[in-house]
What we know:
Layout: E1 12-15, H1 22-38, E2 45-50, H2 56-69, E3 73-77, H3 83-92, E4 98-101, E5 110-116, H4 125-133, H5 147-152, E6 156-159, H6 162-172, H7 176-179, E7 184-188, H8 197-202, E8 208-212, H9 234-243, E9 247-251, E10 258-261, E11 267-268, H10 270-284, E12 291-294, H11 300-308, E13 312-315, H12 319-329, E14 333-335, E15 341-343, H13 352-366, H14 370-381, E16 385-392, H15 397-407, E17 411-412, E18 415-421, E19 426-430, E20 435-440, E21 446-453, H16 459-469
Parallel strand pairs: 2-3, 2-4, 3-6, 7-8, 7-9, 12-13, 12-14
Antiparallel strand pairs: 1-5, 4-5, 9-10, 10-11, 14-15, 16-21, 17-18, 18-19, 19-20, 20-21
Amino acid sequence: MTYTIRFGTDGWRATIAEDYTFDNVRRCAQGFASYLLQHGKQGAWVVIGYDKRFQSENFALAAAEVLAGNGLCVYLTDKATPTPVIAFSVTDKKAVGAVNITASHNPPADNGFKVRNETGGAIDPQGLVEIESLIPQSAEQVTHLAAKEAEAQGLLQYFDPAPRYIEHIQRLIDLTPIRNAGLKIVVDSMWGNGAGWFTQLLSGGKTQIIEIHNERNPIFPEMKRPEPIPPNINVGLKKTVELGADVLLITDGDADRVGVGSEKGEFVNQLQVYALLAYYLLEVRGERGPIVKTLSTTGMLEKLGKLYNVPVYETGVGFKYVAPKMTETNALIGGEESGGFAFRGNVPERDGILAGLYILDMMVRLNRKPSELIDLLYSKIGAHYYDRVDRSFSGDRRSREQRILDAKPQTIGGLKVTGLNTMDGFKFGLEDGGWMLIRFSGTEPMMRVYCETTHKERVQAILQDGLRIAGLE
């Protein structure tokens, strides 16, 4: 039986050697090639990059051979490259899109296949459905051209994307004050593509960068997966305290997400980071523009929107929704609960490197450490508390969805339910302005229960009620 390739929240992901095979990667590449050709892109250039997972460079080469075989031209990165650098290269090279071989934050056994459009951002859901429909049923229906022949014909070029991306970053932010600030920064690149980037960008001054997990190791020791949340970052948090560092910056496996640890060794959660970044752009830099957020991220953004008189747009989960909305509205910032943030002036793609630099710039400009930045933020809009529980599930998804709809809870965690949003999952509004969301993962057989509230003591009760409503307790 033919394996069916489906694009989830952010591309296709599967287990290496089980479903993620060279044949299936070639089938996926053929679908993308056919999509580009149907949209009149014959002879156009496409960027291909990859991460440090097992065989990623060879899967990327296989995809390049398929695109070349279909008459498209390929810029292939000469080394493992962060997702935001690949995205920037699309616009810099005036390419029509990109293929990125990465499973981002997934467990070690997985790999993935992401596609991007001419903006460097995610292709919208309708485009993804079209690509899926063009994926052939078997590898025998794939057209490809051997790499050496493609290179000889000028259809394949290797390139180093770093210099041009660094030039671009230096136009967005003055790095000199950070270099000279004398900060001690621990960087955890989670064995992934972020290794070396902060050192390269910030060396040469008084600031000290200490990197951990900065080699290639596809089994990701000392963490369950390269996702910048506890417990995966616990080693980095401990190291921050041991070294007396000012901040911990974490990038996930492909460096499109950022995580932050305080000088106290405490995790600054993704919702807090998003609110800090928005506050930095609006207050510290004095910029104005719309904010785009997924429904699973913080209500603090609505409060900041009111404070600074800027609109806030809410989308479904995934940058396939965020990126098009950012482009449509010329948004100042766009982001999601997972720790991925995109910025105006850059491409509409998550950039963990630029986000980390903005956090450092905020620290330097305000002369505050991360815990002090949180205090400052809360002094403006009040304290907010967040947590999330992930649970694997089996069985029929539709019956679980119906169970959630049928629950009709009057209260959750002792707070009155004020409404239900089913745009993407099941988001229950709560009387304090907080929320509880139950959502199926778009890339794994996983259900997630999230919450945000102004009542710290109610967080766990809200999550437990969510698990019961979802039938997971």
